[in-house]
Design a protein that fits this description.
With 219 residues, the chain is mainly alpha-helical. It has nine helices and four strands. It has helices at residues 2-14, 24-31, 43-60, 62-72, 74-79, 84-110, 121-131, 143-162, 167-218; strands spanning 19-21, 33-34, 40-41, 112-114. The strands form two sheets. The chain has a two-stranded antiparallel ribbon with strand order 1-4. Strands 2-3 form a two-stranded antiparallel sheet. A hairpin with a 5-residue loop joins β2 and β3 (40-41). It is elongated, with a radius of gyration of 23 Å.
């Protein structure tokens, strides 16, 4: 987060123009449509394809299992032989590449780019992931869950916009939604931790009873 703020400041310093035209190549990428599907914007199937690829990677590959394990418990994953440093670096690289793809699609759709484009999207990305079931403590989440969370957040914002709600109030509503998503995530994490602790105590109790029974029988 701190690095993104630093880079955004550098962008504002190095690119003083607020809006400038875009290369036609990017406009073609962002505005392409598929005639066979009723002039469906090409960005939509591209987005679904990316989510599908990451669904396969996270659920059915060793990389995905190692990635989720690193997020859930880096120390235990390292002890188990997973190169956690590599997983973390790959996570940042992947996020950067996908952000660049999203930026190209967005800029191409608008036929122009500004030095403030994408500002404020970081927290919305977190919110979409949280609404889709991703845990802030790591180790839990799915690509299609995040897609559902992003769609839900977009529908929520569009509904408020269609109802004529002011932009400032829409931002406030989005912030409230993020806050509620974090509360739900913390509650689920606390509940999961409590259930795990109770299970451990129950197993310890059963083990103690078993040892006492064996001691009585042997004596």
């Amino acid at each position: 987060l701190s690095v993104s703020i630093i880079l955004r400041g550098l962008i504002l310093f190095l690119i003083p123009l607020s809006i400038f035209p875009l290369d036609p190549v990017y406009s073609f990428i962002g505005k392409s449509r598929i005639a066979a599907f009723g002039n469906l914007p090409a960005a939509i199937p591209v987005t679904f394809l990316i989510y599908f690829i990451f669904h396969i990677l996270l659920k059915y590959t060793v990389f995905g299992r190692n990635y989720l394990a690193t997020g859930g418990n880096p120390r235990a994953s390292y002890v188990a032989g997973i190169n956690t440093r590599r997983m973390i670096i790959l996570g940042f690289v992947t996020a950067g590449v996908l952000s660049a793809v999203a930026g190209m699609l967005t800029a191409g759709r608008q036929d122009s780019v500004s030095n403030t484009m994408g500002s404020g999207m970081t927290l919305l990305a977190f919110a979409g992931a949280l609404l889709g079931g991703t845990s802030m403590s790591g180790g839990k989440g799915s690509a299609f869950g995040m897609l559902g969370g992003a769609i839900l957040l977009g529908m929520f914002s569009n509904a408020l916009n269609l109802l004529g709600v002011k932009v400032t109030l829409i931002h406030a509503a989005q912030g409230t939604l993020i806050f509620l998503a974090i509360l739900v995530d913390r509650f689920r994490a606390a509940l999961r931790s409590s259930m795990l602790r109770k299970d451990q105590l129950r197993r310890l109790h059963h083990h103690s009873v078993h040892e006492e029974t064996e001691n009585v029988i042997s004596s």
